[in-house]
Specification:
Elements: H1 2-45, H2 48-61, H3 70-90, E1 94-100, E2 105-111, E3 116-122, H4 123-127
Antiparallel strand pairs: 1-2, 2-3
Helix pairs in contact: 2-3
Length: 132
């Protein structure tokens, strides 16, 4: 009878060991699935292309190759800025460009529920050779 109890105890211990291993593996697997889902959600929501497009639109706003008149240039830049605000607000985010003529700077802003991006650029960096 003593050998029968020892075999039963060994089976119970072995079963507990296997159950512990299975639970540990399932917990690690669940954590990896959650991490993968969070990573994919972050990649889907990444506004990298929107920010790139906003910088591209900023270069259009400060493009002075066709503008000699200062007032016309200022009005043109303001119109582009207003259109950008309208387009980005329809997507549910805030996108804007601010042109600071006195400092020869351009401020690009993008704000969404997940990302806050603001960058100050020189006219020469974004507008190329056409900046005055």
């Amino acid at each position: 009878m003593a050998t029968m109890n020892e075999k039963g105890q060994m089976m119970i211990l072995f079963t507990l060991f296997i159950a512990t291993v299975i639970i540990s593996v399932s917990v690690l697997h669940a954590q990896n699935i959650l991490a993968g889902m969070e990573t994919s959600r972050t990649m889907i929501l990444s506004p990298k292309n929107e920010i790139y497009n906003l910088r591209d639109l900023a270069s259009i706003a400060c493009d002075t190759k066709i503008m000699d008149n200062y007032l016309y240039k200022l009005q043109y830049s303001q119109n582009v800025s207003n259109q950008i605000k309208l387009l980005y607000s329809q997507k549910g985010v805030y996108g804007d460009i601010i042109i600071v003529e006195s400092e020869k700077k351009l401020i690009v802003n993008f704000f969404s529920s997940d990302v806050e991006y603001s960058e100050k650029l020189n006219f020469n960096d974004i507008c190329g050779v056409y900046a005055k």
